[in-house]
Design brief:
Elements (H helix, E strand, L loop, with lengths): L4 H19 L8 H9 L6 H11 L5 H22 L9 E2 L2 E2 L1 H4 L2 H20 L7 H15 L4 H12 L7 H26 L5 H24 L2 H4 L5 H5 L4 H5 L1 H17 L9 H10 L5
Antiparallel strand pairs: 1-2
């Protein structure tokens, strides 16, 4: 029987989960390592790790290297969620159906867990096991610093917080910029990491990832309206409750769905230089807008 895309997604998620389990610090007498493992080893789709693995496979990079890259981006993503859930941010009590870190432990622990996961990720990338060439490791580190920091994810979070108290709701171009930073920057880093490892042109994968990241966020906004909170394992309708503009509130539900599907086609077109070798990346683009959580 042919392997289906859900099979491939689960297989890659399992590989990333196993790598994280091996690379994360072991629990000890303090509660920090245990809380770090709790934040990272909690299942999930491992979408960013999937993109890192599959982009590396386009260039023949062995999994033993790209799994370190996948582990790094999953640690950064987990850190962002731990901090995002804090009372000073989104104040969420559940993440994937389980108590968030600040609820299970306390706020100080959650802040420190996020800090530790972020630095751990850069340590993974700096190790020679990730790539023998120092210039490749430096490129991965520099690009992640840009994607995760004040020019990317953190900037997007600042823009998102500011939107809650803005005198007028953000318009479509402002929402698009916000989400390109908050969500899209790490997706782009993941999808281009294989080209960086191979010291190859990143532009086609950058264009693919930008369309993919926007489609991902539009689908998130759709699920926030018509999704199932039990399936999602988190609180829904947060943006509507906060009075924030979303792709759905600006475009309407049906138009948002059409826009997301159009972006999937755009993302797939950007992969034409790689031919059939990019089949998994095309499939994940279609998955992004068909998922239910």
């Amino acid at each position: 029987m042919a392997r289906t895309f859900p099979d491939l997604l689960r297989e890659n998620a399992g590989l990333v989960e196993a790598a994280l389990n091996e690379m994360m610090p072991a629990s000890d007498a303090t509660h920090l390592p245990g809380a770090m493992r709790y934040a990272v080893l909690n299942g999930g789709k491992r979408l960013r790790g999937f993109l890192a693995l599959e982009s590396a496979r386009l260039f023949g990079i062995p999994d033993i290297q790209s799994l370190r890259v996948a582990a790094a981006i999953e640690c950064v993503h987990a850190y962002s969620l731990v901090h995002d859930d804090l009372p000073c941010m989104d104040d969420d009590a559940l993440r994937r159906g389980k108590p968030t870190v600040h609820v299970k432990w306390d706020e100080a622990t959650a802040v420190l867990v996020g800090d530790a996961l972020q630095t751990l990720a850069f340590g993974f990338l700096a190790d020679a096991a990730t790539a023998p060439q120092a210039e490749v490791r430096l490129a991965l580190i520099a690009r992640l610093a840009n994607a995760a920091g004040a020019n990317g994810m953190v900037l997007g979070q600042v823009q998102d917080i500011a939107a809650e108290t803005a005198l007028a709701p953000l318009d479509l171009s402002q929402i698009t910029e916000l989400q390109a930073n908050k969500t899209g920057a790490l997706i782009e880093w993941s999808a281009t990491s294989g080209a960086v490892l191979a010291q190859s042109d990143t532009v086609p994968l950058e264009n693919y990832a930008r369309a993919l990241g926007l489609a991902f966020q539009i689908q998130d906004d759709i699920l926030d309206v018509e999704g199932d909170s039990e399936a999602a394992g988190k609180r829904l309708n947060k943006d509507a409750d906060a009075g924030k503009a979303t792709f759905v509130s600006l475009l309407g539900l049906e138009a948002a769905k059409i826009r997301a599907k159009s972006l999937v086609e755009q993302a797939s077109d950007m992969l034409s230089p790689y031919g059939e070798g990019a089949a998994a990346l095309r499939q994940v683009a279609r998955y992004v807008v068909s998922r239910d959580r």
